[in-house]
Amino acid sequence: MLTRYLNQAFPAALGVFVFLWGGASVATQMRPLTEDFDDLYIYTIPTLPLHENAALSAPTARVSDSPAQHDADLDPDANAAPFQWKPALQQAFFFTGFMHGYRLATEAQTRDALNGHWWRNYRQSIGELRGWDDGDTFMTSYIAHPFEGAIFGYIEQQNDPRYSRVMWGDGRKYWISRLRAMAFSAAMSTQWTLGPASEASIGNVQLRDSPGFVDLVGTPIFGTMVMIAEDVADRYLVAPLENRTANRPALAFSRMFLSPTRSFANLMAFKYPWHREGRLGINGENNKLRKEMLRDYEDGAGPALFEYTPPKKRASEATIYPLAAPIELESSAHYETFLGGGSCIGGGGSGAVRIKPSWQLITEVSGCLVINMPHEQSGDSMLYQVGTRWTPRASRRVSPFLQMTVGGRRITHEIDDEAKRVALLKEWDEGAGPIHYPKRNDWSVENQQNGLALSAGGGVDIALGRAFAWRVGNLEYTHSWLGDVDQIHAANGLRVSSSLVLKIGTW
User: Fold this and answer.
1) Which of 105, 133, 278, 404 would bridge with 212, disulfide CB 3.0–4.6 Å?
2) pLDDT digits over 164-212, tens only?
3) Pick from 147, 155, 180: which is nearest to 87 by CA?
């Protein structure tokens, strides 16, 4: 019993130790300002709208290693430096390697999957992707993975000079920065799920667990929501605290506890976790300067250290944006009834590019779970299509549309033997079973068909300002050129969906 406990607890303890030791080591590898200082001051990047007051900028010259900081253009838009791809990818794959290291340290099944034919198992893992759920717990799918997406997003931001200092309240510039962060996060989280250095290639997760789309969709989208929540906390909780105290533990704790994913992204860039671009450090001479500024502020001899100033538009920035979005991104929920019997519920995502004032090219990937299946049986549908959409009133608040798409549909019916699964896992855990960790095909039988599919229908959009629209309803007829998959009859169906549309280029 003791040996079994140690085998389970030791990898987890090792992973925690490596995280703590690695985080401390990474943070302390940054060279201090001088031999006596233990923190960096301000980087040579244009200041944030939340910035040190101009009246306080003069004293900073005595401690700053960056004289150019005081001559920097206060308008971040003036910084046209390109995105720093090399450090961004280095930091993103450093984080990816960290996650793989934790998996290898704590998951015996992942270590076991390193044996075998790499390319064949990797290809089969990718081919198994279907449905929504992936068998992970709620904490993993809807807490841990969104945190992963937010870390990738902050890695993008800290390597994007044009948007590295945006904060909540900066209007259009802020939302553009979050779109850029979400795109980078989507690419890196897809790599984490399906890429050459992924869960599919290292551990073959899809061959042993339910292979769903939840991580591909949820990681970047929910991760962006985590970023927004941290930005709000930084603006309304952390910044006001910095105007009231110079207590180093309080400042470090508030920055890290209220912005955990940004702090972790800092570590991936070999920065202190409490580092903030354009903000006064918390140690050494920075702390002395902070105390002096706070004393002046409390005595009425100086302004607050930090205050938010909304970005001002120049006359040349009076841009007129179109009412019909050049690009649209959609996230939908839908219900489909199969006319031969049965139904499914699910969701999907689509993108649209406007090629004419009233025409769009669209692409869609969606999936749904077949409901009311017998015990220990499951079924799902995956639809992937491209087509066109006619939008005669695209610039109006209420915009009806018609669309037609063509592509493919894959129907899967799986029959599980739960008793066999439990027995195989017990034998593996006790060392009395098969040599390798049991795969799903050891305890389940799968029947699958893939065929040509066509959808046609229409609906109506209601604009919710310039950035969003609510696709109130979209009713479509679907036809698939495939036979029955056991009791699933998906050749013909009616699908109704509702979705949120993000309009890009209208704001």
Assistant:
1) 133
2) 988 888 888 898 999 999 999 999 999 999 999 999 899 888 888 877 7
3) 155
Q: What is the pairing mode between strands 50-52 and 306-308? A: antiparallel
Nearest to 400, CA basis, from 351, 477, 461: 461
Residue pair 189/108 in contact by the 8 Å Cβ criterion: no
Cα–Cα distance for residue pair 174/166, rounded to 1 Å: 6
User: If DSSP codes are grouped into helix, strand and coil, which group holds residue 14?
Assistant: helix
Token output for 21: 């030791």
Q: How far is CA 213 from CA 151, 190, 210, 265, 382, in A?
A: 20, 10, 10, 25, 10
CA distance 235 to 481: 54
Residues 424, 437: Cα–Cα separation, whole Å: 9
The 10 Å Cβ neighbour count of residue 230 is: 21
* DSSP helix/strand/coil, 401: strand
Q: For residue 137, what are the contacts with CB-CB under 8 A and spacing of at least 6?
A: none
Ranges 193-197, 240-244, 313-317, 487-491: which has the least confidence: 313-317
The residue behind tokens 């001002």 is 312
pLDDT in tens, 229-272: 999 999 999 989 988 888 899 999 999 999 999 999 999 999 99
Task: Write the DSSP symbol of residue 463.
Answer: E
**Two structure tokens written together for 347:** 């969701």
Question: Residue 76: left if φ>0, alpha if ψ -120 to 50, beta else—which one?
Answer: alpha
What is the residue-wise DSSP string for 165-216?
A: T--TT-THHHHHHHHHHHHHHHHHHHHHHHSTTSTTTSS-GGGTS---SHHH
